[in-house]
Design a protein that fits this description.
Chains A, B, C, D: One of its GO terms (molecular function) is dipeptidase activity. Chains A, B, C, D: Keywords: Manganese, Metal-binding. Chains A, B, C, D: Pfam families: M20_dimer (PF07687), Peptidase_M20 (PF01546). Chains A, B, C, D: This is Aminobenzoyl-glutamate utilization protein A. The structure is a homotetramer of 438-residue chains. Chain A has 438 residues and is an alpha/beta fold. Chain A has two domains: 319 residues, Aminopeptidase, CATH 3.40.630.10; 107 residues, Alpha-Beta Plaits (2-Layer Sandwich), CATH 3.30.70.360. Helices cover 36% and strands 22% of the residues of chain A. In chain A, the strands form two sheets. In chain A, strands 1-2-4-3-5-12-6-11 form an eight-stranded mixed beta sheet, with helices on both faces. In chain A, helix 7 crosses helix 13, helix 9 runs antiparallel to helix 10 and helix 11 crosses helix 13. In chain A, 61% of the residues are buried. Chains A and D meet through helix 9, strand 8 and strand 9 of A and helix 9, strand 8 and strand 9 of D. Strand 8 of chain A pairs antiparallel with strand 8 of chain D.
Chain lengths: 438, 438, 438, 438
């Protein structure tokens, strides 16, 4: 119990720093693939703690990146990051949106490779100007229009940095290797894939991750046995036909609007899957140019989901066939682009049980819930799948935090006392995995 | 006017024979491609009038036949024809449904090739047992269940034979060549194509054809300037998917029923054509095996039309693409079969004007109408198109006849006095075309 | 254990009778609502054992019957039943398909109301003429074309009669009331509803039912804890439009074919339900009269399912709205008829555990499996839902039996030694429920 | 011929004024219902010529106006008009977009009521900045962004004012009443309806109208016998459903996106009409908010057409039913708004023949074409229909003019020498109708 007491003392000592750090990140939110300031900050801190640090193409596989912003948006975000204090050399290395960071710490004694994954990106939301909104009262609300940390990733990054510092300070008591992964673009489930494909968890024996709030809405709650990650794939399909005057020569048109409408209907008729949960949604359809013109352009945005990667693959294959057939149906072209995705999965049961025990031992959690069905998608699952597929164990926790409003809402905020809860839980669990035995 | 008087006298002299002949054919109706008895009768009579007679593969191009009955149905019809008095040798030559007959008469003096086309098949209709129905009163109603001359082709064949006889008797007064074409399977517009493809009108300078009734519902009326034949194509599309239990494993099915439904909807959404009339109809859709099984089989029967052959071609091409795309949409197979078709077109104006003049000269028509829009499909148009395309002239007439009920109705009957009208009009017009001058 | 030994002895003594009885019923299969001979036989036997017997409207609620055959078919089946030895008075009472039978036995000592449900109908299947087929070898195959016991209900009825006899013979050892329910029309899940609505299980404390085979394919296996009955509803929807010539006046038609196609596609696009399994299937679509006629008639057969009655209700409501909207879309009428249905549900856990214990005690089962997911629909669930909803307990068992081919297959047959297994299990379990204590 | 010579002289004398006037209007284009400057100019000039002038609600029926801009847009346009020299009192009277103007001139001698209709609005097009564009070379191109006279209405208004002036000067030679109608919002066929409904042509015996260019692309050509105006109706349909998370609770959504898609497909499947040309086009479909949200909002913009008002009415009724049914199909609401429309029709043959004669007499037209099929929609047809329905005659002419680019193109310009052609034709034709005899 010596280690536990040491960790609790260390975290309690840095409580104010945690809040300060979180608020700094909150004021400078950056959306997926543009986390140049955040990632630079992370990289510099990790270096200062003695970590080997991977950035740029060492952290992210370029051609596996999904849902990238335009080159112009990326360049503007780089400039802004530098103007807001980011290290220009690091920002330069991240050109093209390569904003993932990996920190590695080799302890002297041999032991397992244990990893923690954090996410850094914000949402496409403009933070409320409501005076009662806590970040407004305390003066740390977003300084970027249409960008806001409305999902708590500012907290995740903050906790990650604290854990990295504490474990580095405890290096004589630990064994094996600690890897800390800061990923970009979790929103839209776009970022994990490109880091996982770069092999960053290929040698990992134990992987942890966590989210504030979600189904744990009370500070002091924790869920260690999370199941039911839905695998998901995000597509954009752009149909291109031929315009024609709808009165004078309708037969000369190639109707992309109807192709998209036809696709939408038939996509929703993909059969249910008997092996588990499946989902399909065409969430956006923008088509046509004018009332009296045969619609020559159409864009649809859709997503598939499945309670297993296989079911999602079934949905994805059906969707692709249907999109192509809908184009053929109206004699138009279609370009289908995969713009995001996550694997399905569930926590490794043994690791989940281990975490529950640790949570009890810490003694700060009022309510340690049992199995918790996630029922949604998080691209942590890409890392989880990789680790589990080579025989490792992975687990995702939900750390309870009182919320001011739902996730992705412009009034979102979380109870900052949860920062210390999460830091303690992570440090203690990781320390108990970073041993030569077990 | 000598010739006209001669013709009138000849027709008037055979009035009773006309009625007798028509009633014999009416009693023994034969549907498309099974006109073994009728065609044998025609072939024998033409031979006896001195015509060179082409039957079997000399009259009909085998691989251009559309919408054939089953081999069994054909064989049964052959047996029945023989049992009803047909010449077994001729019936044998027509094996496989080759029931077209061409009669050729070369006159001594040189002159144009002039043709008359008649159709011989009946409808898939069971004649009414209503006692007031004229054929029942006179005892000449159909002896075949589900077969009835409900469109007057018994009359057309009768008139054709009379015209053939009279013109052969007038051989010293005529010049050039007379061809008389008796085609099978006009219903479903299936038969003309296979004779036209065999070249039977390739040398024809003038082609005539006629129909009783239709838009001319009063005996004594005649229309010589018929326009607006709708080109048409008939398709069957059979979709084959894979059955699966709809409760236990819906994802294992390949849904042919939905593919057919999807095809039907999108076929009807083929754009209108600015160059003229277009039509599409899916008239039948039969799909699925059981309520709780993913529908693995589906059949649809459809047709396209167009006021020109080009418009119909547009519709046909669109339909084919849509049928294939609907199959792709549901991952099923589709087999598309063309089962019928007719060209579009209009009477040659010069020949129409000539016929109007002849109709006036005969003096038996009370009402010679002007342009008459056909607005439907008749496979006479296949012959017409061929003749017109090589510089010849073609015209289709409607010969007025009081009707007991509409065409294809089980109560259909036409005023038999129209038989003589038509025979006179045909003989006189043809005689005026079969001259060395003109 | 005295009772158990007594039961085993009694059943063993009647083994040959069980087989004889089963084969008699097998030779005279009757489809849903036409079980006149079977039901008469059952009613007579129950009477002879001293049961109070309810037939006709006392057993079945007339206006709750779903999926009835035509009046003619019912009358013909009545005549046949009498010709095959059925009691004419009983058959008369069942006129209109009222073929349900309830037997009631009041024991002297007070106690619970305990019920057993059996089903009597056969399938719409013609039994194979394969010489190797056991019923052919033994000369007891179906004497009715297109009717065959291909789901083992002949066995269920046989076991039911044996249980009724044995329990009546043990009347001095038992307490409370025994009710035995013989239902018609289980196939298509049509019959239970009309008996449940008549209140036949309103006073039941414990309800048992069973099926041979299904997921228990080895004689000697048994499943007592069956869960996951899918609630289901079966609909027929008949669309009526207006025919019109597709070439001459398409705008005058009202297209029932397209309404049905439109309904089919949109039915399959009913959203998935997050609370559990949902299903939709349009398994049949028959529409249109001729290729060139706007389709004025269409029939579709569909079913919805849900892992709970609520989810199925959601599907059912959506389906009804969509069918009506599809009719409105094409300006046609639609008549929607519910032709079958079953509730969702699972065995009462306490009763399931009790049955497992009894199965062990009997000592004849080699393999007593744990939870068994039914994953399909059986209208036993209607009775189960009623009993559970008023605080009673219900359980459905699967009794292992080697099968010659799958259920509903023309080669289906089951190992007749399973008859005794089931009779023993039923008698013993029921006897242990029919006590004054517990 | 005295009158003709007088007219020719008068027009020739004002040639420069015509061009100056046209260019002033061209520089200040105003889109539909915002023609405050143009209408004020017209009203002032008509007053100065001695006309009785109707503006505001005397000219336009408020609740029959279709496709109005927002209140803000109208107010801004009013301010701009005043800032560009419009009479503030007149602009005030036109508040709300009441920009129609009617001028009435009663001649001393009794005679028929003869009217001329002109249109004043411009297109939603930004005029090209191409230096070679004639209006740029001559310095009279549009000073308003996104507004341009790209359809020649600047010329129509100019000619109308010239005709009004000349006929007023010839008052002693004419009889009856002359009415000149300047309508707003011809683009989108929105304006005529609201003036026709106000009764402005209820007393008109002869109505003329004209367009530069269109099918007459050579200066010196003229078409007097225009037929085949397509009746048309423009709809907006807004669907409102309920959003829901597509992964977590799809069944809670009400899918407006699919309702709109379903509407689009089924609208295009409205049957063709045998009585003439029909058209349907869904030209725009905008739906949904995010990829992972059930689409709760959708907007579609559509139009129907027909070669007669009856056919268009059929299309319109079908469309309305389908839109409502599509909403019902997905349990969403729909609001349907008619935003434009025009009647079908053809020139009165007698008046067309009269105009041809007058065109010949003038002697300035090189090519007077025969029947000219319009094949599109113009809301002149609303006035035409009203006049013809009470027994009057109406005709629309196309006055040839060399064009720099097609109508509605940013490079559009027409040969200004056509202004005089049109003025002469109008003045002479109107003068020959404004007589006591005829």
């Amino acid at each position: 119990m010596e280690i536990l007491n040491e960790i609790i003392a260390k975290v309690d000592a840095m409580k104010d720093d945690l809040i300060k750090q979180r608020r700094d990140i909150h004021r400078h939110p950056e959306t997926g693939w543009t986390e140049f300031r955040t990632a630079s900050l992370v990289a510099e801190k990790l270096s200062s703690y003695g970590y080997e640090v991977l950035v740029g193409e060492k952290a992210v596989k370029k051609d596996a990146m999904m849902g990238l912003p335009s080159d112009e948006a990326l360049r503007n975000a780089q400039k802004r990051a530098v103007s807001e204090g980011a290290n220009p050399d690091l920002v330069e290395k991240m050109t093209g949106g390569l904003t993932g960071v990996v920190g590695i710490f080799h302890f002297a004694k041999p032991g397992p490779v244990v990893a923690l994954r954090c996410d850094m990106d914000c949402n496409d939301v403009t933070e409320t100007s409501d005076e009662k909104h806590f970040p407004n009262q305390q003066g740390f609300s977003s300084t970027h229009e249409k960008e806001m940390h409305a999902c708590g990733h500012d907290g995740h990054t903050t906790v990650g940095l604290a854990v990295a510092k504490i474990l580095s300070e405890m290096k004589d008591e630990l064994a094996g290797t600690f890897k800390i992964i800061f990923q970009p673009a979790e929103e839209g489930v776009r970022g994990a894939h490109a880091m996982a494909e770069n092999g960053v968890v290929d040698d990992v024996d134990y992987l942890l991750g966590a989210h504030f709030g979600f189904k744990m809405k009370h500070t002091g709650d924790i869920a260690c046995d999370v199941t039911g990650f839905l695998a998901t794939t995000k597509f954009d399909a752009a149909f291109t036909g031929k315009p024609a005057h709808a009165g004078a020569a309708p037969e000369e048109g190639r109707n992309a609007l109807l192709a998209a409408a036809c696709a939408a209907l038939n996509l929703h008729a993909i059969p249910r899957h008997s092996a588990g949960v499946s989902r399909i949604n065409v969430g956006k359809l923008i088509a046509g140019s004018g009332r009296n013109v045969v619609g020559d352009k159409a864009l649809i945005q859709l997503e598939t989901r499945g309670s297993t990667t296989e079911i999602n693959k079934f949905m994805e294959d059906e969707a692709a066939r249907i999109l192509n057939a809908a184009a053929a149906m109206y004699g138009v072209d279609v370009e289908i682009k995969k713009v995001g995705g996550a694997a399905g999965g569930s926590n490794s049961p043994e690791l989940a049980a281990f975490l529950k025990d640790k949570a009890k031992e810490i003694g700060i959690f009022k309510n340690i819930v049992g199995e918790c069905d996630f029922g949604a998608s998080e691209d942590f699952s890409y890392f989880m799948e990789k680790v589990q597929s080579h025989g490792g164990q992975a687990a995702y926790m939900m750390v309870g935090a009182e919320l001011a409003a739902g996730h992705h809402d412009s009034h979102f905020n979380f109870d900052e006392t949860a920062l210390a809860h999460s830091a303690k839980m992570m440090c203690y669990s990781l320390s108990q995995l970073l041993t030569s035995k077990k």
